[in-house]
C-alpha cells in the first residue's frame, strides 16, 4: 500500500445532512401510512457519524486480499483514526519494515502479532520486526458495482 493513498480528513468537515428514514417497527397493521412519512425530519451526516476526531482522521484505499474474511476488500475506503490507542482485536494501519499494511492486532501467546483475514498469510510477529501503528480503522466503506 503506497503512502500516497493517505488522504487526511477535512479539519472542519462541512455538515451534509442527508435524508435518513425511520425504521419500520409496527407490531400490527393500522392502515397504509404515507411513504413520505418515514423521511420526515430525520437526517444522517456521514462526517458526524464516521469522523469522530477530524484532526487525527485520514482515509485510505485498500489494495490486496489479506483482509477479505474480515470484511475489508480491495478497493474499499478505510476511515482511520490515529488518536486511538491500539488494543488487541483492533484493525490497524501500520508500517512493517517500511511497508504500509492493514492488519488485525492480536496477542498470540502473550506476544503481539499482526494477523490477516486470509489464511494464505501468516501472522506477522510485531515484536521481532520494525513496526509502527499509524491508526485504528474506525469504518470501512464498501461500494457495490452498479
Automatic annotation (TrEMBL):
GO terms for biological process: DNA repair; regulation of DNA-templated transcription; SOS response. Keywords: Autocatalytic cleavage, DNA damage, DNA repair, Hydrolase, SOS response. Residues 31-137 form the Peptidase S24/S26A/S26B/S26C domain. InterPro entries: LexA-like, LexA/Signal_pep-like_sf, LexA_repressor, Peptidase_S24_LexA, Peptidase_S24_S26A/B/C. GO terms for molecular function: DNA binding; hydrolase activity. It comes from the Bacteria. Pfam families: Peptidase_S24. PANTHER family: LEXA REPRESSOR, LEXA REPRESSOR-RELATED. Belongs to the peptidase S24 family. This is DNA polymerase V.
